[in-house]
Amino acid sequence: MKWTEQQIPRQDGRVAVVTGANTGLGFETARRLAERGASVVLAVRDTAKGKVAAARMNGDVSVRELDLTSLDSVRAAAAGLRASHPRIDLLINNAGVMYTPKQTTRDGFEMQFGTNHLGHFALTGLLLDLLLPVPGSRVVTVSSTGHRIRAAIHFDDLQWERSYGRAAAYGQSKLANLMFTYELQRRLTAHGTTVAVAAHPGISNTELVRNTPAVVRRPVTLLAPVITQPATAGALPTLRAATDPSVLGGQYYGPDGLGEVRGYPKLVTSSPESYDLTVQQRLWAVSEDLTGVRFPVGRAAAAA
After folding, report:
1. What pTM was computed for the model?
2. Residues 106-118: tens digit of each pLDDT
3. Residue of 18, 130, 215, 264 with fewest CB within 10 Å of its CB?
4. Which residues are catalytic?
5. Is 294 exposed, middle or buried (0-12, 13-18, 19+ CB in 10 A)?
6. Which domains does the chain have, with CATH numbers?
7. DSSP 176-224
8. InterPro entries recorded for this chain (predicted)?
């Protein structure tokens, strides 16, 4: 059976926080959750654009400022969410940047690694205790088929200070998303409530490609009707990971078409490198040190 938006269960009484929800995949994810009855928080960098997006949605939708390039902003957003929401059912780490020119976040991290991984790592750690007591709660992190590009976590030059390749840096950040999910799930297992799941949208026609080099962007634009899918379809793997009752912690969802480029969401497998337990744990430790965020679930719980 093809999984479609019609199979999203009712979400009445659930609170969903979606990062990067003012456009593209995040917008479609938030819109459908709100239509199914969830109270949705659009966690966005530009609150003016967030309010415009919220006005286009039906249901209980609010806006919270969140700039993932700043750990101060992440902490402020988490504090605001804690003050306004005593519980969270769904945390969807969707926001991201892709193929940016070499630049750093406000905290000095390489932009793609800092935004896509470290910002979401910190946000999740600061909010996780609001999810842990909630039956059926989930942390869904959006990765990419790009995690296979030069698939490695470059601990010897994590911030790409010696050399920089925008595609390889993006691949590292998306590989980190998966490794974070798998290690988080291992730590959550002893709690029996919250699970961590990952998803990817295939190749979706969104604003994310705006930083793609022109030599690549032009042919992709011409071939878009054939090799891409609209954001409405690209959001389906995330929505399935977030709402399908059959989903299990540690799973990864993507399109079912050739090369996982487009299609209906199904259970998929990530690269062999993404399952390296030693690297997952090392990345976790480094991420804690870089962000200063410690999670309320530790390795002892994971081994229990």
Report:
1. 0.92
2. 999 999 999 999 9
3. 215
4. 170
5. exposed
6. 10-303 (3.40.50.720)
7. HHHHHHHHHHHHHGGGSS-EEEEE---SB-SGGGGGS-HHHHHHHHHHH
8. NAD(P)-bd_dom_sf, SDR_fam
